[in-house]
Amino acid sequence: MLLSVRVFSPVRYCMAVCASMLLIGCAPNSTSETEEPSTLAHVMDPLLNDASEVFWDSAGFIDTYEGTTDLTPTTEEGWQSIIEAADEITRLSAVLQEERYSLNRPAWNELSQMLVVASDRARQSAHDRDGAELFEAGAQLYQVCVACHQSFWSNNRFSITESEAQ
Ligand code: HEC
Question: Most Cβ neighbours (<10 Å): which of 133, 142, 156, 159?
Fold first, then answer.
């Protein structure tokens, strides 16, 4: 039985809620799998979201009656996947700063750049094999997501409370 979860998965939690709302609401725009991933929504999800989840799924603890599961990577591949996710987030930060997405808004570019600060921290934690630091980097990354969504996403579906984010 699950006792408590100390992992960073507020986004997935929220997406589950949103998904059920979408089913009731109108059908989402259908885009073919083969289309060029050129929309901001696609950069966000799956690209940025999936890379971020590598951090969030690799940090923290899950407590059950059977014991505590530490999500910190234990293998070379596990730590390597953190480094790859950090590289991907760095790449996507640059994509977000392209004019078609940034519209030359300084605050947008600043927030996009902060994704790199958090992913650099995660990459360093992987080099140091430091699970606690990886958790902090994941939390820092999440703050950037929230900050940008609050500033630039008028139809923000991520408006969850601090207590839910814990
Ligand atoms: C520079 C600003 C910015 C940053 C940083 C940012 N987002 Fe977003 N995000 C947006 C905007 C704007 C939208 C709304 C896009 C739309 O639907 O047109 C959005 C939408 C999303 C969506 C919903 C996409 C959809 O299907 O409509 C997800 C998921 C998402 N972001 C995840 C993330 C995650 C995870 C992070 C942090 C790692 C993040 N975002 C950081 C601006 C940002």
Answer: 142
Distance 148 CA to ligand 1 centre (A): 8
Q: Which residue has the tokens 């885009």?
A: 31
Q: Which CATH number fits domain 39-59+73-156: 1.10.3660.10, 1.20.120.10, 2.40.180.10, 3.30.70.360?
A: 1.20.120.10
Type and span of the H or E element at 68: strand 67-70
- Select from 18, 39, 44 the residue to mutate for testing ligand 1; criterion: most ligand atoms less than 8 Å from CB: 44
- Fill in the amino acid letter for 39: T
Label residue 157 by pLDDT band (50, 70, 90). low
At 19-67, the pLDDT tens digits run 444 444 444 444 445 555 589 999 999 999 999 999 999 999 999 999 9
- C-beta separation of 91 from 36 below 8 A: no
Task: Answer yes or no: are the C-beta atoms of 112 and 96 closer than 8 Å.
Answer: yes
Token readout for 145 is: 């997501």
